[in-house]
Amino acid sequence: MLNQPKVSRTSTSNTTARSFVGRLSVYFAFIGVLAAGIIYVTMIFILQWVEDEVSLNNLRESAPYVVKQFQSGTPEPLVLPPNITAFYSTNFIPKKYGQLQNYPLGFNGEINDDSHELFLHRDEFLLDGEVVQLYLTMPADNVELSNAQWKSISTFSLLFTLGLLILLGYALIKLSKRLIEPINDLSKQLAKQPLPTTFSVNTSAAKEFGILTDSLNSYRQQNETLIKQEQAFARYASHELRTPLSIVVGAAKLLSKKPDADFQLRQQERITRAAQDMQNTVDALLNIVKQEKSDNSNPPRQLTEQELNQTIETAVNLAKKQHIEVTVNWQGNPYVQPNTAVIKMLLSNLLNNAINARGDNLPDDETSWIKITILDNQIVVEDNGQGLSNIEKGQQQSDMSGHGLGLVIIDTLCHRYNWQFTLKSNHPRGCIATLSLPALSL
Fold first, then answer.
1. What is the pLDDT of residues 117-163, one digit of tens each?
2. CA distance 330 to 332
3. In what order do the strands lie in the sheet containing 78-80?
4. Full set of structural domains in the chain with CATH
5. What is the CA radius of gyration of the chain?
6. Distance (Å, rounded) from C-alpha 119 to C-alpha 100?
7. CA count, 13 A, side-chain hemisphere, 57
8. Separation between Cα atoms, residue 19 and residue 28, nearest integer Å
9. pLDDT tens-place string over residues 154-210
10. Cβ distance 411 to 400 under 8 Å?
């Protein structure tokens, strides 16, 4: 029992695309919560800072007005709307405010203790020729945000966080549908046994996945076509080899039945021709399946008239027996790469097809003919036979499998050596087979 070759697998992580979506969801949730927390803390800090700065600026800007009022004789304490109280002596300062005179001159800030919060502006001014102290106070409770307002801010932050998570979740869903789910769908389809007829992805997937899916379907169709062609080729190749083999077996049996020297010589010639045909077929088939590059195994050479005549000799003799005129028209000196066996296989099959398609209902003044034209970059085989049928025309547009082994081998060998083979109808009857050769040089 033959050991199956080991196929090396691409090294990847054990993480699947589906688990990647879960991990991505966790990342997005973490990022959303972190961003919401940062925004909440930043918002609270900014609100508190702005709240304090507004109150302190209000105290500082009120100082010049208060000084003028005291200098004009206004008694203390002086109350300014909405909640600023001014003093210039410590006797009128409420005891709950503590020792405000202990704060340095020019102090403008917030005083926090266990019982209350107070904004204080400390300064001095001239009153009746004497330097006196100035105290501007503002209770923080009257200007700071209330608990209800802070709750509203917290509620807004929570709603903002929730909205951010919803937005990120929506983005993740869209990303998954366009980039992740198509991969999962294709993986599931590739894992099915048997494989589906065609691969498909969701229409919302990214354009690249559509291109990938179309490529997979195209490659699969090409593989199926190649498999069918290989099966047809093997079937036709066995037939091609069976025909000369039958001749060899039949001739060998006849040799033992009739000792006549001329008869035996004819049978030997039949065996020799059949064996040579099988050898040419085997050589052509080996050229198809050889692994070496044709550039290394068969260097380019110029096709000579002698090689051509030897190549088509058997087919020409067969054509003469059927009263078909064969002419060769040299108009160039082409360079070829295949060896003589392949050249013979190509041209013999073209000529045999032309011979088999010999026209039976030709005008009285016209005879059957086959014309071979040799150009620098083409070999053209033209005949006035039956031509292509409608079925054969349709098959000629798709592949060569409908024309028998001859054209199957021709098409395969042409692909092997980068030749182009075309077959079209001739006017008014017959076919034109063209072998287009690549540009080669010695």
1. 788 888 888 888 888 888 888 887 766 667 787 788 778 878 877 88
2. 6
3. 78-80, 84-87, 130-139, 117-127, 108-112
4. 297-436 (3.30.565.10)
5. 50
6. 11
7. 6
8. 14
9. 788 788 778 877 887 788 777 777 777 788 888 888 888 888 888 888 887 778 888
10. yes
d(CA 247, CA 220): 41
Helix (H, G, I), strand (E, B) or coil at 161: helix
Mean pLDDT within 97-122: 80
Provide the 3-class DSSP secondary structure of residue 382. strand
Own/partner pairs, 96-102, CB within 8 angstroms, 24+ separation: 97/137, 100/135, 100/137, 101/133, 101/135
- Residue 42 amino acid letter: T
Q: Which amino acid is at 82?
A: P
Q: Between the CA of residue 200 and those of 18, 175, 290, 361, 436, what are the distances in Å?
A: 18, 19, 37, 54, 39
Are the CB atoms for 383 and 357 separated by under 8 Å?
Answer: yes
CB half-sphere exposure, 190, CA atoms < 13 A: 11
